[in-house]
Amino acid sequence: MTRVWVRWLPAVVVPAVIAVAVVAVPMQAGAAVDLPDKTAQEVLGLVSDSTVSSFSGTLEQTSNLGLPDLGSALSSMPSGSGDSETDAAASAATTALELLTGSHTARVFADGADNLRVQVIDSLNERNLIVNGDEVWFYDSETNEATHLAIPADVHADARAELEDATAKAQAEAGAMPTPAELADRLLSDLDASTEVTVGTDTAIAGRDAYELRLTPRTDETLVASASIFVDSETGMPLSVDVRAHGQEDPAFRVAFTKVSFTAPDAALFAFTPPAGATVTEQALPEHDGNADHEALTEKDLSDLAAGDLPVTVTGEGWAAVAELPAGTVSAELTSSPLFAQLTTSVTGGALFSTTLLNVLVTDDGRVLAGSVPVETLQAAAAE
Amino acid sequence: MSSSEERLAAPVRNGSFGWALLASELAVLFRRRRTIAMLLALALIPILIAVAVRLSSSEVSAGQGPPFLDRITQNGLFVGITALVVAIPLFLPLTIGVAAGDTIAGEAGLGTLRYLLVAPAGRVRLLLVKFAGAAAFCLAATLTVAITGAVIGAILFPIGPVTLLSGDTISVVDSIGRSVLIALYVTVSLLGLSAIGLFISTLTSVPVGAMAATIVVAVTSQILDVLPQLEWLHPWLFSHYWLGFADILRQPILWDSFSDNALLQGGYMVVFGALAYGRFATKDILS
């Protein structure tokens, strides 16, 4: 009966070989990397000296914030119910929520400061943001709608700032992910006495050796356990950002390149003409046409927010800061929507939207308190 | 059976690698009335879609119905792509299940298997030839849907430059190249299922049982693929990348799912090929 045994051998060996390959290949890819030692200062210097402006790559974003996967609930939300303002607000909220749950893939192409293309890869669909000098396009293949934003050639400094606001908004609308560079900038600017900065384990990210810059809050009052920025050892470009929460093994939020190349992408990628048949919306800059349409209005709201026109009160310091918005900021439509009820839990003093990194408390009298702090801290701040 | 006589008549010499056997297998497969009926049924899918959209007076708005349906009225070349999206979950696996489930069990059921093995073809060679036949059917089925779709689309609707998912526009010639790539992608996607069907087919001499089991496997895999609780399992399911052909409609083409899919289907082919060999080589052929 040896011959029978021999003939079944491939059926045993082949799965075994595949299993070994499946285990071994990722281990090899994530193998420890040994780079020359650098201090945190030097790695920070590497980041600030980075001159990379042309690259293309694939970004993976995963959120593990302890929220339910809302993909199906969000897509089944009715749209186009008539009231454009409610619709727009709802769609902005759902896009933000979508970004906070599950994982996303995007391709990023950048050439210099003026050319950028972000493609958010959805199953059978794609959302595109194209910035080509003075032209900004947003295209959604699902609805076949294109939005165009043209910047006059004689932009002065204010308009440039507004453009950045609008771009940020368009990005948020696209569900586009912040690039690691943007996130790193934001985190590094927040560095102060509140944070301990160390150099962690060298790791391979997207096939490149990277330094880990680990930021650990000095306080225990916050939900954030640590944040890590992985910096490419050659170019100084941040390749990945991880944010970890207390009591959670996987990163609560992670943006990382899975593929990156530092050659300039094809210039044709930045030349966008809306396809025939697409609905094209021309979007005016707020300063020129402030009240014309709703989109412009929200942009204005955003810039107002940036300018500090909204009375935001901040209590606490550093990582444990709590931001408070006065009553009336959150519309009744939002708080009465079924999605809101589904997402929040009722706690003493209001409704709580809780994630592993951020807690938001909407008090019964309509105030909103938010911070990377435990609920008790929010409730205490609300009671003050 | 004239088919088996024909194959027995085909000279199988040592070292000829069974090309003659393959040729006769393909000839039998594609001359079979069942195969032709299945291909005709597949060809009906794009025709039905195109005629329904053409005759309907109501405008299809974006995001309604199967993906790309709203693009058909603007560009007939999308008929083939819409038909593929519609056919992939059920119709294609159904026909592949019939073709692959029939491979060995069909011969056993007709009592022709032992005659095939009388010729010094060898059981390995017969398995390879049978798998090649099933793979050829995958290609034929996919091309039937894609080509019928393109032709009926060109007849009923205007054709012109094609809009990709990224919003970029490519010429008709480029779009034909992409359609060929999509057909290849879908064919490769179905090879794993063919290998499973071949293995199941070696287990029984009742062809209908093998066909049904193969189709059940395809449906089960797709059900598992939508359960969020089994997310860790999803990349291992042979149906996971079935709709990933949309990545060919991006600008530039995103090859990740193409290569992941090829690797996965290759894995299924090797594993179930080895299982089929273990079973078929040790089996007592009684019929």
Automatic annotation (TrEMBL), chain B:
Keyword set, alphabetical order: Membrane, Transmembrane, Transmembrane helix
Coiled coil ranges: none
Parts of the chain that traverse the membrane: 37-57, 77-105, 126-159, 179-199, 206-224, 262-280
Keyword Transmembrane helix: yes
Metal-binding found in the keyword field: no
Matching PANTHER family: INTEGRAL MEMBRANE PROTEIN-RELATED, MEMBRANE PROTEIN
This protein's name: ABC transporter permease
